[in-house]
Amino acid sequence: MNRKKILALIATAAVTAQVIGCGSTDTTTSTTSEATTSENTTNSESEESQAESTADTKGAESETKVSSLQATSQEEREQIEAALDLANNEEVTWTYDADADAWVMSIVTAVANAEIEDEEGVSVCIPGAYIKGIDTDGDGAADITSQNYTDAVHGQLVIDYEAQVTSSNGQVYTASTAPVILNTGAAGYSSSTNTTAATSYASEGYINVSCGNRGKNDTATDENGEEYYTGDAPSCLVDQKAAARFVRYNILLGNLPGSTQYWVSTGGSGGGAHATMFAATSDSSDFYDYQVAVGAVGVYVNEDGTYDTTVTIDGTTYDLSDGAWGAVAYSPITSLYEADMAMAFEYYMDVDYDFNTSFQEQMAKYLSEEYMEYINGQNLSVNESDVALDINGDGDTDDTIALSIEYDEQKYADTNGYGGTYVDFYLAEFESNLQWYLDNLDYAEDWTWFDSDGNALSDEEVAAMTSEDKAKAFIEGRYAKSTSSNGGMGGPGGAPGNMAGGPGDMAGGPGGEGMPNGAGAPGGDMNGETADAEGGTEDRSFANSDVAANSAGDTMDVGTPDAGTTQSAGSTTDSSNYATYDEMLASYQSDVEEVYSGDKYGNVIVELYNPLNYIGDTDGSDPAWIRMVCGAAEGDISMFNSLNLQLAFLSAGVDATIEWQWDGGHVPSEVLGESLALTVDTMYGEYVDGAVKITKQAAEKQTTNGDATEATGTDISSWVNYDDTTNVSFTLADAVSYRTKGASKSTPGFDVIDYGQEDYVFGDSETDARHWSKWVLKVLEEHKDELEALFNQG
């Protein structure tokens, strides 16, 4: 168990001692991923030799957490491996997409003991270059090829391990080295119905995987015909891990092409949370019992209760991983453990923020105090060089900064008394993200630029614009974006489609001025609903249309499983569920006690879904890199959450970057030349021996002005210092005002006070939703006298 996990458990025990007895989770070293060396050969033997080497080095049965489940018999193991071997599947078919030059596998069940088959399946899309054809009669020869294909066909792939695909960025892949993109659904932590994999990445040379997952509010029927709730944490993540094992297993068998090492998880919103958690919890034994229960391949219980995470193929033993090499997470709604405090703190620092009720404002005040104590208790620090920021303002990036929050009502009056190096880091991150946006405006395509009098520039004037001219025009709002400038989540070369991105009408920002108003703005009306994404019928980077639609913003009613917050901006009622404070408090106490008493495997599911517990944990493995892309004006979670994740990943030696896209709302589009494909290709060039070193292609100069008739950009010049457009700045007070004015949801937290969507993630078989935030409970108990007088008083 690593230090972070110990600290988390100590904090849990300290906060909840008066309510519950919190049990710890005993974990030690477990088996990890099957490959550690680079993949630069041209046939499947490279995968097998790497997996065999790791298995030999680490041993097939490393000491690990002890399971409470019955040992897996040899017969059961053989049955699982035979059932999940695609060569034995009589129903799987392959469809050829000529436009994309890609073969798509029909949906197959990824586990042997599925609870809900419609949500525990997997589909794979493979670039056509890697496939000679389909062997329909078992003789090893390609009978159906792209040339004579007419209809879906059953058979085995005939893989061409000599073929190469060069991506749009110039990276070169083969059938054995191709990265595998795992699309994590779970929008809003919900279930995802199985869907066939999209062809989005075929031209890039990637293997694309779509998997379903169980989620909140799912129900199933037991052997007695009784209906029960299922899909609670960690079901979403478990199903994604099981799908990864299934695909890796079939790659090792030679049934599928692709790398078993270079896996990238990606998703948006709740899917972004699961992309992050999938990477952070790689090969953690805390999740093994859940996988064993559904019959995942390559995870078994030994007679002594330890785990075996290997498979044996033709007499050779391979270690099978359930984790990721990298991740691209769009607006990851994690860690929920911190969410209430962090969002309360961010909103409370805005002295002009108008809370709905006095009760909510007082809750935010107390939760802010808890957050300060929480952060200061972790002894956080960051190397300026790791984040390329001059946090202390001394003109260099050579220092290690100890991060803490200070409270001084006089010194920090413009942020309600809060300051310190931790929020200095937050401000520096905000400033750098605006600077990046300005520095990359040459990548803006088909924008319309205007002069100071509101007249559209001529084509000649646009062609003559310098980077400084564009930066000034952007800050002064003298532009209109083209509808094609949003590349969708995943962006150019990655996912087509266009997620909602960018704040809507945000007049009344810092200094009384407006906020950025870009194309793709969420038009949420601040009453618990989010806007529909533009182009909502198109594919998106995760290959699950149901998930994409949910992430893009289905209507979410307050206090329901789909609600992103539990209180609406216009409401003066603190709770619709509880008539009295005592009734509400009793419900919290009962729920939290029950949650922290553990599930049937002895785990606290809130802790399982806190990635901070697993980053750097020796029980599992860490990804090599992660990129988290958030909308700087989104309201679904605080920016402090991604900041804390970056700090944790960096301290564990992970290459971790965060992007707070200046014009971005929840699940922002990739913009200004960025894309998931550029990220994957660049990281592959950075970490794989012999791979091509990738640099971002130069922007093509805009020579023709767009066709908009008036500027739609927002003038932010009154509160952004842009005397030097290569070094813009603004104040912390302006940063938090930007956040609260731009965010489409205005409640400081997910769990205050009625049930919201995350509460439904932490239910159990008998209870659909349960309160789980011990920080909220701590405030409710310690400040009962003050809060009770304000409760439901408007």
**Low-confidence spans: pLDDT under 50, at least 5 residues?**
1-63, 492-560, 563-569
Helix fraction, binned, reads: 25-40%
For the termini, the CA-CA separation is 46 Å
Rounded radius of gyration (Å):
26 Å
Largest sheet: 10 strands, mixed
The count of strands amounts to 26
Number of helices: 20
Structural class comes to alpha+beta
Mean of pLDDT: 84
Q: What fraction strand?
A: 5-15%
Judging from the principal axes of the Cα atoms, what is the shape?
A: globular
Notable characteristics:
794 residues; Rossmann fold; ten-stranded mixed sheet; two-stranded antiparallel ribbon; disordered N terminus; alpha+beta; single chain; 20 helices; globular; 26 strands
Structural write-up:
The protein is α+β, with helices and mostly antiparallel strands and 794 residues long. Among the domains are: 103-330, Alpha/Beta hydrolase fold, catalytic domain (Rossmann fold); 336-483 and 608-741, no CATH class. The chain is 28% helix and 13% strand. The protein is built from 20 helices and 26 strands. The strands form nine sheets. Strands 1, 2, 3, 4, 9, 10, 13, 18, 25 and 26 form a ten-stranded mixed β-sheet that branches. It has a two-stranded antiparallel sheet with strand order 5-6. The chain has a two-stranded antiparallel ribbon with strand order 7-8. A hairpin with a 5-residue loop joins strand 14 (300-301) and strand 15. Helix 8 (358-376) runs antiparallel to helix 20 (784-790). The longest helix is centred in the N-terminal third of the chain and has 19 residues, at 235-253. The protein starts with a helix and ends with a helix. Residues 1-63, 492-560 and 563-569 have low confidence and may be disordered.
